Amino acid sequence: MNTAPVFIKIDEYKDVIDVLHLIRTKIAEAKKTLAQINELKNREDHELSAWHAEITEIEKRVDFVDKLLFPPEEP
Amino acid sequence: MPVPPPLPPLERPFLAEPKEQESPKMMPGMPPRPMPVPRPMALQRSEHAPIAPRIEVPRPRPLIRPPLSPMPVPMHVPPPSQRQQMPPRPMPAHQDQRPREMSREMPQMPEQQRTMRSMYIKGDDFREITENIEIIRRRMRESEQALMRLNNLKNDQDKLFERTDSAIEDVQRKLMYVDKALFER
């Protein structure tokens, strides 16, 4: 059965195109912001790793001082 | 300083008085010529008045219009035979809520934009567009919820940083106490 195609009229076609262009611009801005957040997240991870190393180093030195100040009791 | 001699008087006045108009000679057997109608002073041409040169005004060129370009045809424009089969377009619900300025700006728009205001698309394309818009709307809600979760994580992270900062300050104070206790004289 050969059916004729149905066409639908869209009013304010130019406004729709303008809004789509605006949405595309907003999406590009969101992607740019997401990339900046990702960059900040990478720097944060780097700082957290460095902080973790510092804390580990402090813990080792505190243990060393603790051993020096309080030697193990001889049985 | 010697004074120059006076100039001799003119033999005739610089502006000669016009002679009285002589009456035309009457020829026997001819009707008398009508007397000329005196022209008003403004229209009388003086003997010494400058005559304005005749300026040849160029005639305007005939307008040669470029051939009319064909009207831009929007995509998927149905032929007239199919246009008659289309059902009457239902009035959208949001049309009454549209501000009045939009309709007032319509007549001021050029012809090119007025022709591009409306467009016909296929029904299948329209269905796909509406489905995609619904998916986009759902994804936007999910994206907003993800952003809220990230914001909550950021707040929790800030609280942990504040707590860690106070803990580090406490450790520094205790270290100073130990330092004083060990190396105090």
What is the strand and helix layout of this fold?
The complex is a heterodimer of chains A (75) and B (185).
Chain A: E1 7-10, H1 13-69
Chain B: H1 80-83, H2 100-105, H3 111-115, E1 119-122, H4 123-183
List its traits:
heterodimer, A: 75 residues, mainly alpha, B: 185 residues, 4 helices, 2% strand
Distance between the termini of chain B: 124 Å
Low-confidence stretches of chain A: none
Percent in strands of chain A: 5-15%
Q: Portion of residues in helices of chain B?
A: 40-55%
Tell me the major beta sheet of chain B: none
What is the terminal separation of chain A in angstroms?
101 Å
β-strand amount of chain B: under 5%
Major beta sheet summary of chain A: none
Run of helices and strands of chain B: HHHEH
- Looking at the chains present, what oligomeric state does this protein adopt? heterodimer
Structure in words:
The complex is a heterodimer of chains A (75) and B (185). Helices cover 76% and strands 5% of the residues of chain A. Chain A has 1 helix and 1 strand. Chain A is mainly alpha-helical. The model of chain A has no long low-confidence stretch (mean pLDDT 89). By secondary structure, chain B is an all-alpha fold. Chain B has 4 helices and 1 strand. Chain B has helices at 80-83, 100-105, 111-115, 123-183; one strand at 119-122. The longest helix of chain B is centred in the C-terminal third of the chain and has 61 residues, at 123-183. Residues 13-27, 39-47, 66-74 and 88-107 of chain B have low confidence and may be disordered. The chains are: A mainly alpha (75), B mainly alpha (185).
